[in-house]
Predict the structure.
Amino acid sequence: MFVSDEDLMMKCRKGDTGAFELLVRRHQNPLINYIHRFINDYHRAEDLSQETFLRVFKSAGRYKPTASFKSWLYTIATNLCRNEVRNRSRRNTCFFEDLVEEGEDVYHTEIMRDTRYLPDVLLEKKEQRQMIRKALAQLPENQRVALTLVTYQDLRYEEVAEILGCSVGAVKALIHRARQKMKKLLIKAGIGVEKIDE
Amino acid sequence: MNRQNEFPNVHNSECETYLANPDVLSAYIDKELPTWKRHLIGWHLKRCGTCAHHLQRLQHTDNFLRGAGDVEVSDGFLDGVMARVSEAAQHQRQQGSFGSRIHGLIKVSIGWMPSLTTLAGKLRYNIRTRSPVYISILTFAVFTMVGVTLYQPSGDKFGAELRELDNEKLISFEVIQHEPPKRLLTTYLQGK
Ligand SMILES: [Zn+2]
């Protein structure tokens, strides 16, 4: 029988760690990918994902079933990511955008595998991923967050609006602008109109 | 290749009617439009090459983005989270027992509240029913205080003596009497 995230969260409120483990299992992969896309550092992404889950558990008492669990989870994660990016820029260490401009490989922190024996398809996938990340990194923060949440986290505009603290109309505009910009950036990166149109 | 040629191009005022805001197409891709609007736009897209082409490019961008692979969570991740969660749960339980003790204390203190309210109520009742008695006692007290404050004992005589003293020296000396042995203290006033 499928138990919804919201029901599991209500069980967590009563201190049921088993229910919470099920929530972590369900959301760990999408969450770590979201944070990774945001801060571009795999190890920090794992730390922040752990911190996100811990905060969700600690604040379970304040969770109301009227809000979707995903909005709750990604609100906490987004706030943590924003702080991380802000702290990095304050410390002046490897800021996200700088890395992209310098043309460095921003995925150096990812778990690297020996690519020599990888089939071409996988290599292409890896290149595609790198290209997308670099393009995403060039979007303004709110556009990047909105587009990532809709494209990869499958969140509704309403949930994104809740996370960003803006109207649904504003989210609609953010998504469209982000997609338009991504389209241009990808064409500029060599994935021309023809390739996109294939 | 111009994709627009594949569509019957009727780009006209309809585009402005249905696609006044270009973000409508993104919302169309994300299925974020009400059904009636979705149908209207779908109908327009069948007839308008320009809009259909625009939509197709957005759709391809979206597909391309979705095609990017994900990173994998490391093996120890779940255990790491659950270890920290168990620790937090234990801490919360401990805090809970401390909290319940505080709660008990608050409950006891709140337990006094009804008796305090009763006392206040009784006092209010007393004041209301016995007000003439209280008023007369209060009036008497006020009059006594005013009387005491206004009554000053006449200090004229005393003052005169003090003023005289100002012009004289008060001299005291001891006289030792030998037979029978006695110590006498003599004080007199000497004019300046
Ligand atoms: Zn049109």
In short: The mean pLDDT of chain A is 82. The two ends of chain A are 41 Å apart (CA to CA). Chain A touches chain B through 50 residues (CB under 8 Å).
